[in-house]
C-alpha cells in the first residue's frame, strides 16, 4: 500500500542514485595532475627539496605577501615525498569518486577548489613561515562535503547513511589525531579545508527523500532546486577568503624573507650598505632563503668592486642553492674580471 500524500507523480520524478549515472571524471583528472606535477618536481631536483617546491609554487608566507597569491592554488598540486603523495592520492581516489557522484561534477569542482583555497588561506593565516604543499586541504574539504551529504540524507537513506556518517567521523578523528601527533603536518590547512568543505557541502548538496509507490516499496526522489540558486555560496566564500588573505598579509611576522625583500629594495636604489645590513639579518634568521641572500651579496660585492668577497658569496650560493640560483650565481661569476 502506498501513501498518495507522500508521492505526487506530477511534481516529483524518480532519480536514480547518482553513483549509477555519473562517472567521476574530475576525480581522475585531479589524480593525474597531482601525479604529473609530482613527477616533474622529482625530475627537477626532488620533491623534498624546499627550493624545488618553491620554484614549482609551494606556499610560503613571505612570498605570498609580496603578491604571489597564485601559490595559494598551485600548492594544492604539489607533494613532498612519495608517502605524502600516496596518502593523498588514495584518499582522493576513495572520497573524490563518492562526492563527485553524489553531488555532480560542477559542485564537486567548486567544493574541491574552494575548500583547498580555504585550507591554504588558513595555513597562510596561522602557519605563514612554513613552506607548505599538498592537496590535503582540498581532500579534507571533500571529506567534509561527504559528511554534510550523509548528515542531510540520514533519514532518506536510513541506517546506511547513519552508519556511514559514524564511520566517516571516526576516520576524521583518527586523521586529526595523527596530524596533531606528527610533526611537519599542516593541521591548519586540514582544518580549514574540512570546515569549508562541510559548509559548502551543506549549501550544494542534492536533497533526497523517500516516497512510496503503488508497488509498495520505497524510491529516492530528488527534491533539489536549481543548482544556480545555490551558488550564492561561491561569492560569499571567495569574499571570506579574500578577507583572510588581507589579514594574513598584515600579521605576517618578521622573518628571513622580509629582510631579503627589504635588501632587494635597497639594492635597486643603490643603497648597498643598507642592503648588506638587511642580508645579514636575513642569513641570521635561518637557513631558508640563505642561498638567495648570498647570491645577492655576491652581486653587491661585484658592483662595489670587491671581487674576492663576491667569489666567496657566490660560491656559497652555488653550494646551497637550487638549480635556478646556481645558474644565476654562475652567470654572476662570469662577470668578474680575471686578474
User: Can you list the strand order of the major beta sheet?
Assistant: 1-2
Strand proportion, as a percent range, falls in under 5%
On the 0 to 100 scale, the average pLDDT is: 84
Radius of gyration, in angstroms, nearest whole number? 26 Å
SSE topology:
Blueprint: H1 18-21, H2 25-43, H3 50-56, H4 61-65, H5 71-74, H6 82-103, H7 105-126, H8 136-152, H9 159-181, H10 187-204, E1 208-212, E2 218-222, H11 227-230, H12 233-250, H13 256-268, H14 272-284, H15 290-304, H16 307-320, H17 323-334
Antiparallel strand pairs: 1-2
In short:
With 339 residues, the chain is mainly alpha-helical.
Structure description:
With 339 residues, this protein is an all-alpha fold. The model is unreliable at 1-18 (pLDDT under 50). It has helices spanning 18-21, 25-43, 50-56, 61-65, 71-74, 82-103, 105-126, 136-152, 159-181, 187-204, 227-230, 233-250, 256-268, 272-284, 290-304, 307-320, 323-334, and strands at residues 208-212, 218-222. Helices cover 68% and strands 3% of the residues. Strand 1 and strand 2 (218-222) form a beta hairpin. Helix 8 packs antiparallel against helix 9 (159-181). The radius of gyration is 26 Å and the shape is elongated. A two-stranded antiparallel sheet has the order 1-2. It folds into two domains: 18-250, Up-down Bundle (Rhomboid-like fold); 256-334, Serine Threonine Protein Phosphatase 5, Tetratricopeptide repeat, CATH 1.25.40.10.
